[in-house]
Amino acid sequence: MSTTIHPTAVVSPRARLGQSVSVGPYAVIEDDVTIGDGTTIGSHVLLANGARLGRDCRIHHGAAIGGPPQDLKYKGEPTTLNVGDRTTVREFVTLNRGTTSSGTTTIGSDCLLMAYSHVAHDCRVGNNVIIANCSALAGHVTIQDWVIVGGLTPIHQFVRIGSYSMVGGGVRVAKDVPPYVLASQSPVIFEGLNRVGLRRRGFTPAAIELIDKAYRILYRSNLNVSQAVDQITRELEHTPEIQALLDFIASSKRGIISAHATHT
User: Fold this and answer.
1) Residues with catalytic annotation?
2) What domain range is 218 assigned to?
3) Helix and strand numbers, DSSP H then E, in the chain
């Protein structure tokens, strides 16, 4: 199938379109744009300079991809917004390219960004991530693989959300959410393991039980974080899952969420 461009679309001759790309009515594609094979661009979409789309993506009506950062320090430097393969971007999503801090904003493969969600400059979103309607990532947020973010959720700049976690809807996230957990309420707190998600992703019962033991030490033992980490390190087998948790805590700059409400 050849590439098709609706006659009302405005596509720069400098843009690089792959095989079997479809461009809908009134879409605007600027000069410095790359679109992978099989990707569909809906009506009234803007692909701004610096946008890089992978293969077989689906970009729906009114999305604005690769716009300049909403950062007063940004002075028009050339930066990029990279989207992986098979990612779906729904209506009126906004994805900003990076600043000179990192040079790029990255969205992984096989993601779903629902309508009106926003990813700001210099964010890192992993693979197989779902971001529900009207949620917003501030600058420099990192979301690891297989995370689900509920609707209407604002995520503070520089926050990290660990892999296989699920964050409830309407939750203000101001601290790091460690991997494998359910996080909800406002302010956000640890509510338990994301057991359903872990089982769906093929984690064994033994692996889930070991992760649960680690979180009981971290959140239910009346130890502070440093003490809990020491106990986990001494007492539990260092499987990849446990090591990922320990590494996540060790690299946290904003601190991890609590198991009880704290007003921040």
Assistant:
1) 121-122, 139
2) 199-250
3) 4, 27
